[in-house]
Amino acid sequence: MGLEIERKFLVNHAKWGEADKPQREFYRQGYLLTDPNKTIRVRATDTKGFMTIKGKSEGATRTEFEYEIPKDEAIELLDLFAVSDLTKYRYKVVFAEKLWEVDVFLGENEGLIVAEIELQNEDEMFELPEWVEEEVTGEKKYYNSNLSTLPFRSW
């Protein structure tokens, strides 16, 4: 079974603005199914497509199955079947030997910046970059599937 152990944090805008950043990648993602117990997501990046099935979160852990699909098929699935979607830029930052994915949201979620780190287990230790602020792991309003239906700007 595929598992994802992920912790989420809000990002300080000023400190992030001053940080050295790698090249960003544009993401468009939409949801074919959003249910409290499972989601089915399609994502198109600058170069690839993905279909992801995620189970219910229990703490920082949930089941996850992700499959690469052709980018043009991902866009077609988004256009034809997504019930909600969002856009963002993603930066992949290595800090203290850990990969952080920083999402700078666009559109109705503009103004929100969230950093995520995937771990091997829930008790794994890691250092926080200076641009990380408050932890929001488990806060449902920050789940991308929820941001696609109740965007940040509407809070």
State the separation between the terminal residues, measured CA to CA. 35 Å
Write down the CATH topology: Hypothetical Protein Pfu-838710-001
Relative helix content = 10-25%
Unreliable residue runs:
none
For the biggest β-sheet, the strand order reads 1-5-4-3-2-6-7-8
The chain-level mean pLDDT equals: 96
Strand content: over 45%
Principal-axes shape call: globular
Structural class: mainly beta
Number of helices: 3
Task: Using the 3D structure, state the CATH architecture.
Answer: Beta Barrel
Secondary-structure element order, N to C: EHEEEEHEEEEH
When the domains are counted, the total is 1
List the helices and strands and how they pair.
Layout: E1 3-11, H1 13-18, E2 25-35, E3 38-44, E4 49-55, E5 61-69, H2 71-81, E6 84-95, E7 98-105, E8 113-118, E9 132-135, H3 144-147
Antiparallel strand pairs: 1-5, 1-8, 1-9, 2-3, 2-6, 3-4, 4-5, 6-7, 7-8
What does this entry look like structurally?
- The chain is mostly beta strands.
- It has a single domain, classed as Beta Barrel (Hypothetical Protein Pfu-838710-001), CATH 2.40.320.
- The chain is 14% helix and 47% strand.
- Strand 2 (25-35) and strand 3 form a beta hairpin.
- The longest helix is centred in the middle third of the chain and has 11 residues, at 71-81.
- The mean pLDDT is 96.
